[in-house]
Each structure stands twice: as C-alpha cells, then as structure tokens.
C-alpha cells in the first residue's frame, strides 16, 4: 500500500493527460459497444425479418422506446431513399463509427504515452538524486551486487 501511494504521487503532475486518456477510453468503449448493435434493427427491417414501423414513438423513456425510434428512423430512410441507397448510407455510417472508435483509441494512447514515460523518468531522476547525495563512505562500505 505504501509503495502504491509512492507511485501515485508521481502521477499527480500528469493529471490532465490521465483525464484525457480516461475520457477517450470511455468514448472508445462507447463506440465499440454501439457500433454494430445499432444497425441490427435496420438490417432486420431491410431483409424483411421485421415490419417497418410507420408510427413515430412519443419519446424516448426506455431502451424499448429507443429501439422503436431507431426502427422508425430506419423505416423512414428505407421509404424515402430505397433499399440500396439506405444500405449505402448505413455502410457509410458504420465506417464513420469505426473511424471514430479508432480515433479515440489512438488519442487515448497518445495521451497515456507521456504519462508512462514521464513517470519512469521521474523515478529514475529520484534514484539518481538519491545516489548523488549519499556520502562516499556508503559506496565503499556497503555491499555491491548480489
């Protein structure tokens, strides 16, 4: 526990980078979870496994309402643009979602790299500073190596 506190003390100067890393990790996780399942209702309507929804839901209060709203939106896209154009639009949205997922992954790695390297540098500097203030007797009297 004491060692963990000592390590966390080195994390304090990098709190902005750590915060941004956490933010981008959450966004990446969100896009990972949402990217494929959001299109399942559309594909079910497109391939005739479900009837298109013609009535607009009142509002979004539950997950079921959100699914109904998605079904309604997909039904409207199909009715207005046709199946091939709606499928093309869906593919473009899917590519955009994967792009953003990978962008957020890159940004999370970008912001954690200086933290990792900075903490290692700080610990090395702390060891070096400690070694340079020790008296010369310490180096001649203490056992070296294993």
Which helices and strands occur, and which strands form pairs?
Layout: H1 2-11, H2 15-35, H3 40-46, H4 63-81, H5 83-133, H6 136-141
Helix pairs in contact: 2-5, 3-4, 4-5
Mean pLDDT: 85
- The SSE string, one letter per element, is HHHHHH
State the helicity in percent bands.
over 70%
Please tell me how large the radius of gyration is.
27 Å
Structural class: mainly alpha
Distance between the termini: 27 Å
Q: What is the number of helical segments per DSSP (H or I, 4+ residues)?
A: 6
Extended strand count = 0
User: What oligomeric state best describes the polypeptide chains here?
Assistant: single chain
Can you walk through the features of this model?
- This protein is mainly α.
- The chain has one domain (2-113).
- The chain is built from six helices and no strands.
- The model has no long low-confidence stretch (mean pLDDT 85).
Characteristics:
146 residues, mainly alpha, 78% helix, rod-shaped
Q: What would a concise description of this structure say?
A:
This protein has helices spanning 2-11, 15-35, 40-46, 63-81, 83-133, 136-141. It is mostly helical.
């Amino acid at each position: 526990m004491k060692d963990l506190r000592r390590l966390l003390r080195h994390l304090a100067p990098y709190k902005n980078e750590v915060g941004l890393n956490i933010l981008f990790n959450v966004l990446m996780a969100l896009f990972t979870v949402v990217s494929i399942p959001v299109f399942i209702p559309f594909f079910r309507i497109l391939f005739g496994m479900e009837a298109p929804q013609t009535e607009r839901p009142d509002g979004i209060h539950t997950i079921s309402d959100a699914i109904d709203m998605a079904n309604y939106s997909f039904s409207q896209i199909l009715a207005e643009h046709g199946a091939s154009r709606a499928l093309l639009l869906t593919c473009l949205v899917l590519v955009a979602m994967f792009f953003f997922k990978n962008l957020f992954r890159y940004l999370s790695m970008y912001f954690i790299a200086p933290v990792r390297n900075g903490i290692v540098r700080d610990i090395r500097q702390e060891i070096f500073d400690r070694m340079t203030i020790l008296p010369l007797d310490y180096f001649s009297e203490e056992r070296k190596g294993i």
